[in-house]
Amino acid sequence: MKIFNTLSRKKEEFVPLTPGQVKMYVCGPTVYNLIHIGNARPMIVFDTVRRYFEYKGYDVQYVSNFTDVDDKIIKKAIEEGVNADTVSRRYIEECKKDMAAMNVKTATVHPQATQEISGMLDMIQTLIDNGHAYVAADGTVYFRTSSFKEYGKLSHKNLEDLQSGFREIKVTGEEGKEDPSDFVLWKPKKEGEPYWESPWCDGRPGWHIECSVMSKRYLGEQIDIHAGGEDLIFPHHENEIAQSECANGRSFATYWMHNAFLNIDNRKMSKSLGNFFTVREISEKYDLQVLRFFMLSAHYRSPLNFSAELMEASKNGLDRILTCVGKLKDLEANASEGAAVGEEEAGLGEAAKLKRKFEAAMEDDFNTADAVSAVFELVKLANSTADETSAKSYVVSLKATIQELCDVLGIITEKQAEVLDGDVEEMIAARQQARKDKNFALADEIRGKLLDMGIVLEDTREGVKWKRV
Ligand code: AMP
Ligand code: ZN
Question: Which of 290, 369, 453, 464 has the highest Cβ tally under 10 A?
Answer without folding.
Answer: 290
